Amino acid sequence: MSARSSDRPIVASDRVSDVLARDESLKEVFIQAAPQLAKLRNPAMRRVMARLVTIEQVARMAGLSCDDLLQDLNAALGIGRDASPPAPARRSDEHTASQPRDTAARPPGATEVILDVRDDLRAGREPFSAIMATIANLATDDVVHLRTIFEPLPLYAVLEKRGFVHESQAHADDDWSVWFWRDAARNGARAAAGAITDRFAADVAEAGQDPNVVWLDVRELEPPDPLIRTLTALETLPEDDTLVQVNRRVPQFLLPMLAERGYAYDIEESHTDYVLVRISRVR
Amino acid sequence: MTAVTPPRAARMTLDARIARAPGAMTPAPNVTRLAGEHFAAATVYLLAGALGLVWIAPELAAGAYPSPHVAAVTHLFTLGWITMTIFGALYQLLPVALGAPVRSVRAGHASFWSFAPGVACFATGVAGGSNVLRHAGIALVGIGVLLAVGNVAATLRTARTRDVTWAAIALAITFLTSTLGLGIILLHNLQTGFIAAARARVLATHLHVAIIGWALMMIVGVSHRLLPMFLLAHGADTRWTRRSLAMLASGVPVLAVGIMTQRTLLSWTGIVLIELGIACFLRQVVAFHRVRVKRRLDVGVLFAATALGFLAIGAAIGPIALGAGAGHSRLDTAYVTVGLLGGVVMFIVGFFYKIVPLLAWTARYRGRMGKERVPTVAETFSARVAHVQLVAMALAIALLGAGIGAGSATAVRTGAGLFVVGVALFASQLGRVTFGTPR
């Protein structure tokens, strides 16, 4: 949700980026409330972090009361104390600052895949795709050890949907270790469904249903697997359906083969980290 | 099946933004054949170069790098293997890397048919002291290079993507043209002696512009595009490539001017810049390696990794050779041998393993893919033989370097023999990829 209206009070579910878009000087309110949020002064950090977290999450990261933070922010905007709706009641399974961060103990003896995104975050680079790529290709029993500069609360929810549990540990205010691994009990059925199916569906989070379009995510496959999978999928594609291939780059080897086999294609390159190739039969 | 249910909201957004693919996106026809003829000729020259190493082993052990025999064999590697392979790879990869189809496939073929025989003619002329062959050879090589450079430059002009890979290719072909100019000067000097005592300096400049300015610069730029694909490494910090290219592109001319004008400070500045450029490249590779999704490294990547080890060793020997000054010809020879054979030739062998089987496989099975089960690319060659080849070539280069350093003709010849074994295994693998029946 965006904070579009200038007189609408800031609410717990607003993203920090939306709040700062209303008035960038509000970053000082965050920093005053919690000095560990001083990283918001860094434009690169602001670009990445502020887009990822909500006010409620940032309050939890900093160990603040969300209501107090909302009141401070709204007051700075000149919106009255009463206008600020209370933060939603916390679910019983969510962290609070006083609770231990750990939600589970990681499996002993598991292979750890270390992914350090601290430099990326400090430089203002979006680490989400690298994290998701690592997650997507994680062996069943492996553990991802993510090093980051803040507790990645938004990531917990994303990965929880994919059957991952986590354990977190703060080494310093700006140095966190978080381990993610698959919850064996929850994943039996999901594993059979196929990791790739799950991957793009989660990346495009606002999922809907269109029965005439089939999506094929080949971003994490090494050549020539994208080629084979696409051609295989086309063999079973119903006459009037469209196959949308999600790739890292324009699949130059595939294009002439599509023409040879009687398919038309459109390429959409407006995204920074993937290309969509829409393939359908020539009518 | 990897199909996914469609997210409607996302699709609506995408529909709104969709761009119809321009016709220019489709790769030019027959580029695979064009690349293939370059790769085939390059393999023949690699084999010839390996055999040539055995022949020149005593001269290498004596550090006689300016000898015509050594020069001839060196050109089998630099022109016959490295340059031929790069040309072939560019024709194939420019559409993939830059979204630009090759400007003229016909010019590519013309370049090949001038360049390929030209290298043989030139190397034979240099080794045998034949003026006619040397001049015919350099004329053919020159025409081939200029046609290829012109073709690539015209392709770069139409490229939709002008990123670091684009810049690297543009810089590299500029250095290649400079290398050709310096080579013509050296060749003319063989007849007239007009540069007299400056010959060693021109030769050193020619070598560095060729190996670092042309070959290494191209490797850095192409790796930037291909290594993430080979390692499935996305999201790495990619600024190290830019830094590497900036250092190398400034270091090579500074070193060249330093050597030519005998200004020690300039030479050292050039060396420092080049060393930093190599360090940045290695750092970039480490960054890719760290974020890779593909955990197990295949043999092609292992070749490239081994080559980077030799590149680092060569980079360590370089300043020592410069500091030692003239009169340490074995050190100079070892430096060039390890850097050229270990750092560049091996790296290209590694990328060959990634690219050539894929191209051959695509050409062979394009009509059957998706309709029936086809062999995998990995099944078109033997990983075990490739690993044996890797060990043989790595040992060979270590022996060559150590043997030259120690002045031992026996060690150098043994290393050269081992190198021949490695290259022969490589040729057998390529034959299997092209003509064999997959397992």
In short:
Chain A has 283 residues and is of the alpha/beta class. In chain A, 36% of the residues lie in helices and 18% in strands.
Q: Mind sketching the topology for me?
A:
The complex is a heterodimer of chains A (283) and B (439).
Chain A: H1 16-22, H2 27-33, H3 43-52, H4 55-62, H5 66-76, E1 112-116, H6 118-122, H7 128-136, E2 143-148, H8 153-161, E3 164-172, E4 175-182, H9 184-193, H10 195-203, E5 213-217, H11 225-235, E6 242-247, H12 254-260, E7 263-268, E8 275-281
Parallel strand pairs in A: 1-2, 5-6
Antiparallel strand pairs in A: 2-4, 3-4, 6-8, 7-8
Helix pairs in contact in A: 1-3
Chain B: E1 3-4, H1 8-17, H2 31-55, H3 57-61, H4 68-98, H5 105-128, H6 131-157, H7 164-192, H8 199-231, H9 239-261, H10 264-290, H11 299-324, H12 329-365, H13 383-406, H14 409-435
Please tell me about this protein's structure.
The complex is a heterodimer of chains A (283) and B (439). Chain A is an alpha/beta fold and 283 residues long. Chain A has three domains: 16-83, no CATH class; 112-199, 2-Layer Sandwich (Translation Initiation Factor IF3), CATH 3.30.110; 213-281, Translation Initiation Factor IF3 (2-Layer Sandwich), CATH 3.30.110.40. Chain A contains twelve helices and eight strands. Chain A has helices at residues 16-22, 27-33, 43-52, 55-62, 66-76, 118-122, 128-136, 153-161, 184-193, 195-203, 225-235, 254-260, and strands at 112-116, 143-148, 164-172, 175-182, 213-217, 242-247, 263-268, 275-281. In chain A, the strands form two sheets. Chain A has a four-stranded mixed sheet. In chain A, strands 5-6-8-7 form a four-stranded mixed sheet. By secondary structure, chain B is mainly α. Chains A and B meet through strand 1, helix 7, helix 10, strand 5 and helix 11 of A and strand 1, helix 1 and helix 12 of B. Strand 5 (213-217) of chain A pairs antiparallel with strand 1 (3-4) of chain B, so a sheet runs across the interface.
